[in-house]
Specification:
Elements (H helix, E strand, L loop, with lengths): L9 H29 L7 H43 L6 H48 L7 H37 L6 H11 L2 H28 L7 H28 L2
Helix pairs in contact: 1-4, 1-6, 2-3, 2-4, 3-4, 3-5, 3-6, 3-7, 4-6, 6-7
Length: 270
């Protein structure tokens, strides 16, 4: 007969918790080092500039068009629903404020960060983890240390590209959403431009503008740095590439959820 495994003991739970905390500490420490390198002028020297520029283009240009089209279609549908619903309840004067607050301040930064994570940084992190394993094997076979700077050459450019891609997608999609909102509400007439800009300005008051910038900043840092930190600074793992991507996705989703909750608390309870 096969003995059924009992519940884990307190010792095993403590060891598991210690392992998780230590793994997150390593990733956090390496992520802080990545952020410091990303802000260092030496990272953008002549030697590393080409790698940074290449990853900026590869991670931003192909995704910008797709995300802009996708966000435009979704924005058009959501804006139309909000405007029609507000008109049916006699609340048309609040439709624009609701659209700008919900769509531009809340949805676009989060969806942009998730889009960049799924399309760019998580696959780049898995690619980096495979390259890290191959590099260790090459060093072991050569019997000496390879004279290069892998963090600056391979890790930092990918992290910077992820951060830049989030900011670019959010900025472009936010502007497009504002233009689509005006066209849905006022059409192609210019008569509503004054009222529309006044309403948008009332929504983007200093507190909410600062919160929007901070939310986008932390989302971009999380999306750009966490997959690279787990790929290079995290503990070695024997998981497959798909398993590593799923593991990083779950952890990144938790971080994005915490940022979103903090943003909502700041917006509506601050």
């Amino acid at each position: 007969m096969v003995a059924l495994a009992g519940p884990p003991s307190a010792t095993s739970l403590a060891a598991m918790l210690k392992h998780r905390v230590f793994a997150w500490w390593r990733v956090t420490h390496f992520g802080a080092a990545l952020l410091a390198l990303a802000l260092s002028p030496s990272t953008y020297s002549k030697r590393h500039r080409a790698a940074v520029a290449r990853h900026l283009v590869l991670d931003t240009a192909p995704n910008l068009a797709w995300f802009t089209v996708l966000s435009t279609l979704i924005s058009l549908v959501l804006i139309r629903i909000v405007v029609v619903t507000a008109a049916s309840y006699g609340l048309s004067q609040f439709a624009v404020q609701m659209v700008v607050r919900v769509l531009v301040l809340e949805l676009i930064p989060t969806t942009g960060a998730l889009f960049v994570a799924l399309r760019c940084t998580i696959p780049r992190g898995a690619e980096l983890a495979e390259w890290r394993v191959a590099r260790h094997r090459m060093i072991a076979a050569a019997g000496h240390t390879v004279l290069d700077d892998p963090v600056r050459d391979e890790v930092v450019p990918r992290a910077v590209a992820g951060i830049f891609a989030v900011w670019t997608l959010v900025a472009v999609s936010g502007v497009v959403a504002l233009v689509v909102a005006y066209l849905v509400v006022y059409g192609f007439a210019s008569g509503g431009l004054v009222d529309y800009t006044r309403t948008v300005g009332q929504v983007f008051e200093p507190d909410l503008s600062l919160l929007f910038v901070l939310k986008t900043l932390f989302l971009s840092l999380g999306v750009g740095i966490i997959p690279m930190a787990w790929a290079w600074g995290g503990p070695p793992t024997r998981r497959s590439a798909a398993g590593r991507e799923l593991q990083v996705l779950v952890r990144l989703f938790v971080v994005i959820l915490l940022i979103e909750v903090a943003s909502l608390m700041g917006s509506y309870y601050g």
